[in-house]
Design brief:
Length: 254
């Protein structure tokens, strides 16, 4: 084992979390799963892999991850989503780089994600390498706390790792649509807080640009029918963020 803590936030993830935890069991010195009220067997499964299981009221993605990180006993913390699986190559690379991280004054590492959509790795449309900071020193990092799209902010040098993380993001088209709608509602809350413009023209232009950018500029068309569906759904999600905002500010006025 290496002196690292793996944190996972979860709710009703019994279909996914077993693979996530199996990949780090026996490698990471500590595994922490923070649950926000699962009604399935998520917590029971986590315990079978030797994870420390904690209940914590849901306050937001960033808030939940900050709580999980605060409970870690190790200085180096790796955050994983419940639908992500660390590869053997990435584990080996992390084990190697942590031996010299302090001497090189490195405080964090960014990891690329190899995301799968309905069973196939999506290489274009902005999906790969989709590099995110996930491994960092506890004392030098903190998650941002917006309504959606939180990021791990590191005070210090951050380097890129070469090996990818497998991300089994959407097993079905329906799962993408439901997730996008949830993000759209959360994004609407953030939009309202920022007092940004949200008229019909902006709504249409943002959605159109999202499709054009992901499908054409970022070569989503090279992923075939999946690329087309992904780009349309991404544009729809952005459209709905502004639609929810219009509903709140104009149609629900008393």
């Amino acid at each position: 084992m290496i002196p690292i803590t793996v944190t996972v936030i979860a709710k009703n993830e019994e279909k996914n979390i077993g693979k996530t935890l199996a990949a780090v069991q026996g490698w990471a010195e500590e595994i922490i799963v923070v649950d926000s009220g699962s009604a399935d067997k998520t917590m029971d499964i986590a315990k079978t892999y030797g994870a420390t299981t904690l209940e914590h009221q849901w306050l937001g993605y960033g808030q939940q991850k900050n709580y999980a990180q605060s409970q870690a006993k190790n200085e180096w913390v790796l955050n994983l989503d419940a639908d992500e699986v660390i590869t053997s190559e990435l584990k080996e690379e992390i084990s190697t780089v942590l031996k010299t991280a302090d001497s090189k004054n490195i405080s964090g590492f960014a990891i690329s994600r190899r995301s799968y959509y309905v069973g196939k790795w999506i290489k274009n449309g902005g999906w790969f390498p989709s590099r995110v900071v996930r491994l960092a020193k506890k004392s030098s990092s903190k998650w941002s706390e917006p309504a959606v799209h939180e990021v791990l902010e590191v005070n210090g040098n951050v380097e890129n790792l070469n090996s990818p993380l497998d991300h089994f993001t959407f097993p079905t088209i329906e799962s993408q649509i439901l997730t996008n709608l949830r993000y759209a509602k959360q994004g609407s809350i953030q939009l309202l807080k920022s007092n940004s413009s949200h008229g019909v023209f902006i709504m249409l232009m943002k959605a159109w640009w999202k499709f054009f950018n992901t499908y054409i500029f970022q070569l989503g068309f090279l992923d075939g029918k999946r690329g087309l569906i992904i780009s349309i759904n991404a544009a729809h999600s952005l459209f709905m963020k502004y639609a929810f905002t219009i509903e709140t500010t104009e149609w629900n006025k008393k």
